[in-house]
Design brief:
The protein has five helices and no strands. With about 160 residues, the chain is mainly alpha-helical. The relative contact order is 0.09.
Length: about 160
């Protein structure tokens, strides 16, 4: 089996596992918190968590957007800023789903203190997925190189 196929199969298995385990874990944590502090306090805590998450997403999203625009204005590639934007959007999506576990993971993705760790993980994943192919090598010893000038005669 090729490494690419093995990685896809591994990623699919991880996704299925996450889709099965996460809801069960969320329900378990909700029940435990509800039993510890009561159902109304649990609902109130979830609402407060959502409000805090919305505020955090807005604040960090604006920061990432300003940093990306600033970087683009200087002519540099905003790789760090784009990664931050992806992590903030992913964290925001997790914050929108009800539950304490997904909210905790979402907050970790959004907070500026913990985001560099996840940025490194994202960069490592992206680099592992990057495949460089070259369909035709450069000129070889048997190729004939003709020096010349290209003239574009298309009307403007």
């Amino acid at each position: 089996m090729s490494p690419t196929r093995r990685n896809r199969r591994r990623l699919s298995a991880l996704l299925v596992l996450a889709l099965l385990v996460m809801p069960i874990l969320e329900i378990y944590v909700l029940i435990q918190v509800g039993q510890a502090i009561g159902p109304w306090w649990t609902v109130l805590l979830l609402l407060a968590d959502s409000i805090f998450g919305a505020w955090l997403i807005k604040r960090e999203g604006r920061r990432a957007w300003r940093a990306m625009r600033s970087r683009l204005e200087t002519g540099a590639m905003p790789t760090k800023e784009l990664a931050d934007g992806v992590l903030i959007v992913l964290g925001g999506a997790l914050m929108m789903s009800p539950g304490f576990v997904s909210d905790a993971i979402g907050i970790l993705l959004i907070l500026p203190l913990t985001r560099p760790l996840f940025r490194r993980l994202l960069a490592g994943y992206a680099m592992s997925r990057l495949v460089v192919t070259q369909t035709r090598p450069g000129p070889s010893a048997q190729d004939t190189v003709i020096r010349g000038e290209v003239i574009d005669e298309r009307p403007d």
